[in-house]
Structure of Malate synthase:
Amino acid sequence: MTERRHDRAFVRTFFTSPTAIEGEEDSAKMLRRAAQLRGMQAPDVWVPDNEDATAPSMRDEGAQNIIDVVSEHGADFPGEIHPRMVWHRDSPGTRYQGFQHMLKIADPEKGAVEHIDGFVIPEVGGIDDWKKADEFFTIVENEYGLEEGSLAMSVIIESGQAELAMRKLRDEMGKPENNLERMFLLVDGEVDYTKDMRAITPTGELPPWPELRHNTSRGASAAGCIAVDGPYDDIRDVEGYHERMTENQAKGMLGIWSLTPGQVVEANTSPLPPKTGSWLLDVDGEQVELESEDGVEVYDGDRMSLEASDGGYELRVGSDTRTLDEDELHEELLGLTSYVPSMDDIVDSMEEFEAAKEAGRGAIAMERSATLRIGGTEFDISTDRMWDEATYQAAMTPISLFQDVYENRPDQHEELEERYSTDVVERAMEVGL
């Protein structure tokens, strides 16, 4: 994995707020509310959105609202602040307007830029368009005597051109004619991407675009940036939001756009290791979480049953019933079960491997066992998993995420310690160092 170029190694949440609301006595009220979010309700990256979330007629006022709110509240905001400007690969006038707003907001005399970490640029095209935006950043920095590269640049991937540009980004970074090392987030914008691709679905809903999410995650990894998925519009569908995040996390995309403080809470906690471990049982193609009762993992549904019989066991899954001896049943249940480790479990395993490595051992076996109860019948399973350096490094990813969160979000310390306990947090901050 390419080394990150910014303080944050991970971004879980990308939260946008309109910069100016038409017809309101205080057009900046949504900005003021967002600026005062704290703890798990506060995003890692807050995006005052002077593009799609703000009417074109209100964008000049929106730029001033960013200045007013960020200069007043920015010092206390616990996440990073990256306003989104207007931009379009096919419109010089739109690009110029975004540049003028950047110049206005970045003026040190106005008091906001010291709290602003960068800007988000939407609707980018090919790599030459990314360079145009980067040059505007450089001009703004030189205009006010800011260090070149001090303003991070994030882009929203909303076109096929931008998707292809990610493949060229790594090669372009570091060339003396650009400052593309400032690149921070690569954010998917599936709505405009769908429009650009001229895609059609029978229901009119957005395609899932798993390829785009994979490509963005890959592009971010190769270039030392961070990948963020686009917005999940059905804000009441918490289960669907979790499913989307779980799919993304398996691609290495740990961040997602959040539209409400409630989604921010879900997205802030989703990639973190769970508080308690849990056993999963594959029941006729569906993963079911087992209930833990006095040290026994219990399945009490009606799609699977287990009964002892003369000389063995009868295992029924759906409509299929098989007679198995003890060894065959053990292997079958091992294949049907999986374990989701808790933070404590991960830390325990890492500490054990670190101790073994210190003692000169390159690999050790970690045992995992459980007593299952299916249809009233109990059966013990156990398995050994070999841990070597590669396994250790893979396990380090969720711990590195936690360490990054803990270091960068002191406003979440209390909630994290309540979730895991102070002891587990302290141990998690020590492993891998």
Summary: The radius of gyration is 25 Å. The first helix runs from residue 29 to 35. The chain has a mean pLDDT of 95.
